[in-house]
Amino acid sequence: MKTETNQIFKKRYYLLLFFSFLLQQSYAQEQIKITGKITSATNREAIPFANILIKNTTSGTTSDLDGNFSIMAQPGQILVVSYQGYKTKEANITKERVVNIALVEDILALNEIVVVGYGSQQKKDLTGAISVVKAEEIQKRQVTTVAEGLQGLVTGVKVRGGGRPGQEAGIEIRGLKNLQGTNPLYVVDGLITTANRDFNPNDIESIQVLKDASAAAIYGSRAANGVIIITTKKGKKGPLKIEVSSKTSLTNMPTYNLMGTEEFAKFNNQAYDNAGIPRQNLNMAVNTDWQKEVFSTGLIQDYNASFSGGGDNSTFFMSANYFGNKGTVVSTDFDRVSFRVNSSGTKGIFSIGQNLAISNSKTDEMSGNPIIDVYRLLPTIPVYDSSNPGGYGYGKSDVANTFGTNPLALANFLDTTNENFRIKGNIWSEIKFAPYLKYRFNFGYETSFDSYNFIRKLGNWTLNQPFEQSFINQNKGRSQTQLLENTLTFNKEFGKHSVTALVGQTFQKDNYNQIYGTKRNLLVNPSTGSYFDVLDLGDSPEVGGFRQEAALTSYLGRLEYNYDDRYLFNAVFRRDGSSKFSDGNKWGNFPSTSLGWRVSNEPFFKIDFIKDLKLRASYGELGSGNIGNYEYQGFINTFGAIVMGNGQILYPSATQVRLANSELRWEKLKQTNFGMDLGILNNDLRLTAEYFIARTEDVLFGFPILMTTGNDGGNPISNAATVENKGYEFELAYNKRINDFSFNASLNFTKLNNKLVSLGNGQNEHIQGNTITRTGNSVGMWFVLQTDGLFQNQDEIDNYVSSNGTVIMPNAKPGDIRFKDVNDDGQITNEDKDIIASPWPEFEMGFNTGAQYKGFDFSMNWIASHGATVYNGFRSTVDRFDDDSNYRAGIQPWTPENPNTDFPRIVKGTTLNARGDSDRFLESGDFIRLKYVGFGYNLPESILEKVGLTSARLSLSAQNILTITKYKGLDPEFSNGNIFERGVDIGSFPNLRTYSFGVEFAF
């Protein structure tokens, strides 16, 4: 029995030894130490704090500040590496002890955090129409303002800019919302402000464009034209990081094809001969190319440096920027110097931070309009003429009958500068009472010191100009904005339920004051010949000044609800009170609601290749009070005087010079939006589609009224018109990486139609220039005479009769334009004008693509517009011949020997051929433009390590170098700020061809 027991014990002993050996072998396998580095596949920079997890276990670690990591793992297991903004990547563990992993940036990441105003949401949970723009897409372009950089990147956003130094682009979100062309609201780091030419685009971290009412409703009365939220860069935990960039750009002006002296003299003499007028005594010894004299190659310099870092409890970011733009047109320059400091810190439940930006910008603004003058001036006029006051050449009776102005003389004799020193920023603090409840206080402050200086020196620049003494005009203004905000946010999950609630109160106060003065007969330094530019050196003083104030008080709330990541609900309410309205109309309420259904998360949804499908619907009401501060009050002139009594005594008096409307109320936008988000092919391919209807009621606008009413101070504002916009938006984006090669492309499409539902005030139409705004049609439709070819002989003239046999154009001659007698009254008058075309495009598109291979990258941006009809102001001058200007080179006017042409006979003087209110000068505004193309190279790590850098990049790019269009003006992408004449191109500054070289490095 004992022997048997010993045998059983020995068997068990050997089994224990065997299993112990197996365990030791298994344990030994688990103890393999894996080391490696997590980097970005885009720029090979280290990714700190990336999550590394062994799949199907709870074991994991994070990368350090340099992206390095180490973890104990077993061969055959899988490492799962993730980091916000990058696609999650898996790596199989083999016997290799070093595993380096490059993460691909997730351009379409659904977990991306989106700033939505007084808070943030994950992109996948959005129920409103919000577009996110990557900051680097803007920063790689050479732009002065943020708006320029958005062009072609966002559906529903129309941007029109120009190349004049310091020029700010016009931007519309989802079409025309009112009749004033107001820009959207900018929110920078929580501060209600602007992102104009004083703002440094290099500081941008992220941009969100809130397009529909539900997304923008949290900003209530100021959000009717859309909201652009900008978050600037912040510091990150880690050692000091220094980044420096330099970009130098050459700019080139497009030019007209104009005649030289010989060709000009031929046609000018022909026009005078046809009119029976003695020819001009043209100076054939002069052949001035005014474009060469006025235009030159421009230079842009953009230098930026930033410093950032932080520890466990605090971070900081500092930047400095110089932006200088020497214009392509004489006497146009822009300079900006800006600084920024952002910092934050946390201690327990308390956090505090600040954002501060300081900038100084100076603009040398051109006087007159050289874009027009270069074709108004004749090639037979010399640049300089000592016989003229001031010594410059310009028009002369019977020699050069033109009132064109010499731009070089204007640049010398009219000197205009505008300087702005601006400080803006905010201080915020947060207290977390619990993980799900926090209070936030935000104080924002902005002040601007504005200085405008204008000097008129002695000298002339145009024909028949009367003598004017020298003078100086200076304006000094200061604006202040104070913002106080208090918000309380609750955010908690209850099982499958997630609730976020926000309540808050804000107060904003704006002040602006200005003083101005003028003095004449300025003193001149006898040694240098320069004018003294201070107000105390002159006579005939004039002084004045004014002050304006406005205040806005608001209460706001938002509720977000998410059930099981399938059903989404969002509701917003804001109540605003403004001092711009009378007591009975100060307050306005602006509610919105939106719903989302993530169909792809439903149990019944079994379509594997569709990774994400979300349907959205929203309705909201927004407001606008974009009027002057005192529009509801009467405007009184207190400088009057009246003679009364037998002694004819002069008494001071006051009179109301502008009628006022005390019943002004909020303009209100009501918008409905339907959207769909679709992701397929593992979300590499995504489609976003939107349909919206926006209706603005009680539009605030001042239509002209008769001065016999007693109104003599501008047109009084009233709530009158109703404007409606309907539109579609589509965006298709693809992103893919295969080993060292990555590719991305996106196509966006916007189609919208605007309609004037009613004009109000008993009016049905508003005519301005060659446009008409009529109830039932789009704003600013073309309202002109219609041409019908040329008369080839007298018989055609005699046979062109009305229905009752009346010769319609009896005074015409062969070669003249035949106009349509629309009303059949036997004559051509303004009654024959009709609506024939629209200045609004039928659709606009943007195409963006990029590729990366190892250290090389390429990107390209195209924009296109189709369907707009525009008015060529250049041709309306040079092709008319009724007034002296230069002419287009190569024209072939009608003559008996040259009847096969569409260009009428030329004649000096007023004829129907010279009418500018016909369709003769209307052209297609269609264009396709290569807006940006760029190439870059990131230096390899082997080189960087030798010079002590963490990254270095070289880039070459070009903008506006290719435009496909039939438009005969300088630029089909011109900008006109007049809502009713937005399709009119008369002297609009064109977009410039720009060639840039950039260097960036970090250490």
UniProtKB/TrEMBL annotation:
Per its UniProt record, what SUPFAM superfamilies does this chain match? Carboxypeptidase regulatory domain-like, Porins
| The keyword Signal is annotated on this UniProt entry | yes
Residues covered by the TonB-dependent receptor plug domain: 123-227
Superkingdom of the organism of origin: Bacteria
Leader sequence segment: 1-28
- One of this protein's Pfam families, by short name? Plug
Instruction: Tell me if Chloroplast is a UniProt keyword of this record.
Output: no
Q: How does it sit in the membrane?
A: Multi-pass membrane protein
Where does the record say this protein resides?
A: Cell outer membrane
Where is it mostly found?
membrane
Q: Which UniProt keywords apply?
A: Cell outer membrane, Membrane, Receptor, Signal, Transmembrane, Transmembrane beta strand, Transport
Report the family membership: Belongs to the TonB-dependent receptor family.
> In its UniProt entry, what is this protein called?
TonB-dependent receptor
